[in-house]
Amino acid sequence: MLLAALLLWLLQCPLEPWSAHAHPLYTRLPPSTLQVLSAQGTQALQAAQRSAQRAVKRVATELQLKLHECRGPDWRPAPPAPPPPAPASFARPCGERRPAAANVTRAHGRIVGGSAAPPGAWPWLVRLQLGGQPLCGGVLVAASWVLTAAHCFAGASNELLWTVVLAEGPRGEPAEEVPVNRILSHPKFDPQTFHSDLALVQLWTPVSPAGPARPVCLPQASPEPPAGTPCAIAGWGALFEDGPEAEAVREARVPLLSPDTCQRALGPGLRPSSMLCAGYLAGGIDSCQGDSGGPLTCSEPGPRPREVLFGVTSWGDGCGEPGKPGVYTRVAVFKDWLQQQMSAAPSTREPSCMELLAQDPPEEYPADARLCAFYARRCPLPEGACARLARQQCLQRRRRCALARPAPSLWESPESAAREQRLDSGTPASPAAPTLCDSGASPLPEGCPGLEPLRQKLAALQGSHAWILQVPSERLAMHFQEVLADLSSKTLTGLFRAWVQAGLGGRRVAFSGLVGLEPATLARSLPRLLVQALQAFRSAALAEGKPLGGLPPAS
Ligand code: ARG
């Protein structure tokens, strides 16, 4: 009798219970839903491939134009590189906003994701891109330093793949993209708890004081403002939970909350000594996915009000949910670490891959011995066993860096004396337009300003998009094989934790996500699952260093 009733219930249940483990708290999405997911996944893949092709093509074209420009009849080699620039000094002190921008946004900002910020309103807000894809926000805190969240680099700490897009100007002057020289995650960052979720990113070239980007103030002496102070958040993050990313910067005002209120709202996951929370317990206004690493600034009053960075966007429970304010890394607590890192003498730090690889010729001991001084810092004598070992260590690091660079062919410099000659004498190069391959593998003409960042950008793009660029379009189909939802894990937004298995080409990935089990919640959860699946395929391909489907790289 009981068995019959159970059977009847099973038959009525639109979702098949998880038979493999015979656990009543799991349910498997039916094949029809998997089909819908697969079809949408395939579309997402096609879109991702198109956008990767566009991104690579755009930079390849820029690079070709630059090469033409440098090899053209009017090109002359630039004079030797100037000594390292003195620290840039900005005309305005830190944290100053343009008066118009400050007026526009002082009054309010409301609704999840806030309101659109006028161009140039947040001159210190930057965007961190992995292989050309925006992933996180960041905050310019000095001419060469960006502060962001350490969790942005989880699984992608290779600085050769990252670039920073600086703030655009007030009249929409285009934003500058700068390669990353070094990523310094806080040594105590814990990816499980998000404790010490802070990282410093050193830019390859300092920000020009003549440009629109300028640094925010760090809370050196300023005491943290009291609870209730309205502060500002800004970023390109999602407009609502699981929603699309904003096309332009958005901003909102959120009040700081007391440590007690934060702790009550968010429970033991919140560590008030190094995290602060801000927002409205009623919900509605908050930062969201993609805003991580961005600023929470509070205005310090005075004749010339300045914005001081008290928080860096870190985590939240959903976005704008009632009773769940956003959590920000408490910057003031880390000010000594920040100061130490930003003022450290170059010889106290291991040379970065960017520094080592920027040296020519590529596979030899760096011509600039200062780069390797770090390894010999404890050697009693400039020659001898210790110094030899130091040399070896430096060489080894350089080799490791060479392996980590995204597209080796773009970095190889088969130095051709004839071509060097041609470039040096300013005679036009071969009339044939350089192909993508040619422009990548050709030697770097010294003194061609802007060429190196473009080459790096192209290399990074090709490396990070290789996983999808190399899949033939007829193989571009995603198959969702199984989605198992844990019925006991319903969130406040009506979603369930789920174990997802998907395939693309010969590759299978599995990850956990959130899924809705009713039509409305299911529809809402699909985009996020698709994004996660794409990310899982990309990480799997990058980790194995092979394109999807195990195909040989395109020739
Ligand atoms: N961790 C998110 C990110 O990586 C930021 C989440 C902020 N969430 C919030 N509800 N305030 O972008």
TrEMBL record:
Superkingdom in the source lineage: Eukaryota
An example Gene Ontology CC term for this record: endoplasmic reticulum
Biased composition (Pro residues): 76-87
Domain Peptidase S1 residues, every copy: 111-343
Signal peptide coordinates: 1-22
Segments traversing the membrane: none
Single GO biological process annotation from the record: proteolysis
CDD domains, A to Z: Tryp_SPc
Record region (Disordered): 71-94, 412-439
InterPro entries assigned to the protein according to its UniProt record, in alphabetical order: Peptidase_S1_PA (IPR009003), Peptidase_S1_PA_chymotrypsin (IPR043504), Peptidase_S1A (IPR001314), Trypsin_dom (IPR001254), TRYPSIN_HIS (IPR018114), TRYPSIN_SER (IPR033116)
Keyword Signal: yes
Pfam families from the UniProt entry: Trypsin
Keyword line: Disulfide bond, Glycoprotein, Hydrolase, Protease, Serine protease, Signal
Gene3D superfamilies: Trypsin-like serine proteases (2.40.10.10)
MF terms in GO: serine-type endopeptidase activity
Function: Serine protease required during eye development.
Identification of the protein by name: Serine protease 56
